[in-house]
Amino acid sequence: MKTKRCEHCREHLLARHAHNARFCSGRCRMAAHRAGRSDTDPVPSAMTRRKQWVRHTDRKVPLSVAGPKIRPASSTDPETWSTYSKVRRSTAGVGVGFVLSWADRLVCIDLDHALLDGELRPWARKIVAGLPETYIEVSPSGSGLHIWGFGSVERGRRIRRGDSSIEVYNRGRYMTVTRQPFEGAPSKLADLTRVINDLL
What we know:
By secondary structure, the protein is of the alpha+beta class. Helices cover 18% and strands 26% of the residues. It folds into three domains: 36 residues, no CATH class; 55 residues, no CATH class; 98 residues, no CATH class. It contains five helices and 13 strands. The strands form three sheets. Strands 5, 8, 9, 10, 11 and 13 form a six-stranded mixed beta sheet that branches. A five-stranded antiparallel beta sheet has the order 3-2-1-4-12.
């Protein structure tokens, strides 16, 4: 069997990750995304204009760049959040993340293990096919999707789907942002209330 290599650094992928991984680490994944991005930022302005941004490590630990020193960020403490431009300029960690806050109705639907070898799995395709035009991006793992829009949930919810899961959040949580749109998703946010109600 042919050994797979990281698409960024070309190192061999570990056997336990090789069946669906494209990169050997979060650092390589984000470096590849940065190298391949276009000059046009795909992240909707409804997100970029808010001061709800953090950096994160390759283990998805949120980092604050709000002060003179890098420190852990909190998904419930706005004092640890920054502007989009500031976190984009920072080199702390491996990427950026957006903090969901109940005040702005922004919501993220996280489809875990929605992609298999780059193709949508049937259960995920059904969800995506029923969405209004809204921003969707590939998660850092390369196998999940983050669907962004407006809506609300009383509390974060997680629904198991075999070896996959669907998570819905709109407060007290930060989500990684890769800036890698899925299948040409538009740079705008739609109302996902109906979709969320159907899922929950």
